[in-house]
Amino acid sequence: MIKFLFKRILEFIPVLIIISFIVFSLVFVAGNPVALMLPEDASQEDIERLTVALGLDQPFIVQYGKYMLGLIQGDFGRSFRYNTDALPLVLERLPATLELAAASMVIAIIIAIPLGVWSATRKNTSMDLLATGGAVIGKAMPNFWLGIMLILLFSVTLGWFPVSGRGTMAHLVLPAITLGTGIAAEMTRLIRSSMVEILSQDYVRTAKSKGLRDFFVVYKHAFRNSLIPVVTITALQTSTLVGGALITETVFSWPGLGQLLIQAVNTRDMAIVQASVFIIAILVILMNLLADIIYRILDPRIKYS
Amino acid sequence: MAVLNVEDLHTYFKTEHGIVPSVNGVSFEVKEGETLAIVGESGSGKSVTSLSIMGLIDAPGKVEKGSILFEGSDLTKIGKKEYRKLRGNEIAMIFQEPLTSLNPLFTIGNQLSESIKLHQKVDKKTARVKSVEMLRHVGIPRAEKVFNSYPHTLSGGMRQRVMIAMALSCNPKLLIADEPTTALDVTIQAQILELMKKLAKEHSTAILLITHDLGVVAEMADKVVVMYAGQVVEYTDVYTLFSNPKHPYTKGLLNSTPKFHEIEEELESIKGTVPTPTNMPKGCKFNPRCPFAMDVCTMNEPALNETSYDHKVRCWLYEEKEAVI
Question: Which of A249, B63, B180, B288 is the least crowded, having the fewest Cβ atoms under 10 Å away?
Answer without folding.
Answer: B288
